[in-house]
Design a protein that fits this description.
By secondary structure, the protein is mainly α. It is built from 11 helices and 3 strands, in the order ααααααβββααααα. About 65% of the residues lie in helices and about 5% in strands. A hairpin with a 6-residue loop joins strand 1 and strand 2. The radius of gyration is 20 Å and the shape is globular.
């Protein structure tokens, strides 16, 4: 499950960072991953089966969007399954048509800007991110059901050590090791909070990307068993955006400190 979550985070992060020139290729890669990863494929197909949304409905929505930037184009609403189906059908229709980042479809997402990169970025944040959020929530819930929340385990602190805990299994639970300061050390929490605060001051096209990867870092820190590639991907994405912002020096310093914090685990 952790491997699936990591791979999903990596693919989602790449897709969410797409520029107008990268959108078409990254969309195809992202959808191919969703369709080939068994656990995700099962979930989205289940949503498609339950939802009343159809491919024809999505095709009509995309047609209207390309004809007029002021036509109705609501992706939010109904059940979670409806939202997943609606967005997935729309993305698949865009792939089928070969829509790239300079298509008239994106004009409605300019919000005053005529830059295609801004339009594509806003579309990803307002539409694609909702699909990503639903899939991520499903995977997390599956992880809880599979016992990855450490249910059935007893955490025992070793006397004389503030850093090390032993996780003793009860019943059929497995035994794992955990370094407690990952989830309780105030320094990492402060660094992550500082990054989140900086993200709120960024331009709209960058805010969602940084906040998403800050969330990944926070989850990795709290997990007690951070995945090196997930941390590296998140830090790399934040560094790329942060290096071009007004607070670049602060962002890069925070990234370095967070990277140093995780280094003992890798």
């Amino acid at each position: 499950m952790r491997k699936t979550l990591f791979l999903f985070h990596a693919q989602a992060s790449r897709f969410m960072r797409s520029t107008s020139g990268q959108f078409k290729e990254n969309l195809a890669t992202f959808l191919r991953f969703l369709e080939e990863e068994p656990m995700i494929c099962e979930y989205v197909n289940g949503c498609l089966d339950i939802s009343t949304m159809s491919e024809a409905d999505a095709e009509s929505m995309v047609d209207r969007a390309r004809q007029s930037a002021w036509s109705p184009f609501e992706v939010v609403g109904g059940t979670t399954e409806d939202e997943v189906a609606r967005i997935l059908f729309i993305l698949r229709d865009m792939r089928r048509r070969g829509i790239d980042g300079a298509d008239l479809f994106f004009y409605r997402y300019g919000h005053g800007s005529r830059k295609y990169d801004v339009m594509v970025g806003n579309f990803l944040k307002e539409v694609a991110f909702l699909l990503i959020e639903h899939i991520e929530n499903h995977l997390k819930m599956k992880g809880i059901e599979m016992g990855l929340d450490q249910k059935g385990q007893q955490i025992v602190t070793v006397e004389g050590s503030s850093d090390v805990q032993i996780v003793a299994a009860s019943g059929s639970a497995s035994i794992t090791g955990n370094q407690s300061f990952v989830s309780s050390n105030p320094e990492i929490e402060n660094e992550i909070a500082a990054l989140r605060e900086i993200a709120m001051s960024l331009a709209e096209e960058d805010k969602g990307m940084v906040l998403y990867n800050v969330q990944v870092l926070e989850e990795q820190a709290k997990s007690g068993h951070p995945v090196k590639a997930a941390v590296a991907t998140a830090l790399g994405a934040i560094k790329k955006v942060g290096s071009a912002c007004a607070s670049s020096a602060q962002v890069l310093a925070l990234v370095d400190r967070i990277e140093e914090f995780f280094s003992p685990f890798f």
